[in-house]
């Protein structure tokens, strides 16, 4: 069976597990697909007992903005038995490239099956720590814990979002369901269990009390059956210490994530929100991503943040799909899926020279003092994700 045939089978498995999930554009648009790899054989659900810590909001704990100082970054090394098939070598090159780029600015911990640890270390360099944690896939943003800090910022806790394979679509997820617990155990960080099911890519915070999310992803029976939007919002406030939640409509059922916010709208340190704008030529999926972009812009223009300030929105145009050097039906072409590290910002580069340069300029303007590092990530993008999807920050805390 050819590589393309195997990918066709994979998409059929996704559709069968999800009840027919068409290939979507960049989670905000862009005419490129967003069907994350991570489906395959049926995996058993996690059955470990969950021990719940006090809710962060009750004692002043909060989720820092990604732009605040980091202690380290986590990534995951794709295992031999992943669903990536013939794309695995290219994927490993992309993960190694990201790991090496991040390691120039802060420590990196790479989660890897013990059997692959030596290969991972060779590929990513001696400066990268390898933690023996079995994974199903590379999407540590969604599977890993979300770290919160106490008011004095001298202690950490980790919020386990109870990853369920994007609403059950990823049938191969038994190892990924345990990633948050394993990371926290390895770091010696207390674990708190969220009062909702979500993924890290589904939330975006400014570090000053405001959180953004899409209704399509969180107010969804495949994750939170029987919960109203108000109940989900209360759970978000409790988990992350925020006081205002900004809801964007999003798009349900067109991609495996149900439209994560980290490929639609991102906060900047100056208070602006960067919006991923689909190509002017059209998003290639009946305009659903363009409408989601327009709705998000309107909603944010009418909103205020937790401090009562009006929000400025700035377009981050996606590349022209005709000019991308490589693309498949699941390709995520979205500059908003960047990752901020200490002193730099790691952004994707797609091969549309004008769009690549425009994105770098916008990101540089709104993240002053940071170097913009642009990386080609064609294989990772072909699997439906980006740099932000594959990374998870651990905030820095003061010495006790």
UniProtKB/TrEMBL annotation:
GO terms for molecular function: agmatine deiminase activity; protein-arginine deiminase activity. Residues 42-51 have a biased composition (Acidic residues). The keyword Signal applies. It holds the Pfam family PAD_porph. InterPro entries: Peptidyl-Arg-deiminase_porph, TAT_signal. It comes from the Bacteria. Residues 1-27 form the signal peptide. Keywords: Hydrolase, Signal. Residues 24-65 are annotated as: Disordered. GO terms for biological process: putrescine biosynthetic process. PANTHER family: AGMATINE DEIMINASE-RELATED. This is Agmatine deiminase family protein. It comes from Streptomyces alkaliterrae.
